[in-house]
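User: structure tokens for this one?
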Amino acid sequence: MYPKYCYYSKVTKCQSQPIVFPAQHQDVQPGLEYLMDPLPIAENPEYRGSGKLAGKVAIITGGDSGIGRAAAIAFAKEGANVVIVYLYEHRDAEYTKRRIEELGQQCLAIAGDLRSPLVSQEVVRRTLKGFGQIDILVNNHGVQFPQCSILEITDAQLEDTFRTNIFAFFYMTKAVLPHMARGSCIINTTSVTAYEGNRYLIDYSATKGAIVAFTRSLSLSLADAGIRVNAVAPGPIWTPLQPASWPAEYITTFGTDTPMKRPGQPFELAPAYVYLASQDSGYVSGQVLHVNGGTITST
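Assistant:
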């Protein structure tokens, strides 16, 4: 399933660079954070909120772990109540929920497969029942299945990647939008691969490019309604998706080919989501923030 032999040249080339993580692999996507070694860093203990999201309610898909967990914790520190939507990662979701509650905010954790539009409708129903409002939507979840050639991308993989990474963004947005008021916002997680491409992630990169176009077009569509739409484009970030995607040996040099010579940690993206969710970015819409370790991209 995984093109292990494709990465031998990359690993050999990177032997002189720092070994960041021990070799590891998980068999099922999107992966489990509690099994990772070392654990990702989701929270900056020095981050102090200032009420930028006080009284707000945010839905974050993929909020159980990785970038979603980091954004959820930062939102809570800024005063928001948070709904985290996840697939099957119950233990990771419970940790995130507990941490948000420790910060004095409420958290609703909802398990479901967002490839079905019915799940998005259920998420909205339960959010409104629990909190009575929706102010922020973060479309963040995703999958990636590396292949050495487009010829190895099966019809089933292609449909799974698109249904998860972009169809579900449409479903969540359509379900949430009727309940959003002027001043609300939508934040989509795209990727550096939307701009640079990736020879092993053709279908994934295509969905991330679609998310950029979705963000820009939706922002134009919702401008008159006073709803802002933006995106964040991470580079290589240490999240469960990485060991769940790549061969074990690839992980040992993951992210070291960036200008900063290291992968990012989830907490390093959280302030970007806070910025886009708050009125600090009140005059920003249709834009993509690049948090990628110094990689120069053409926007």
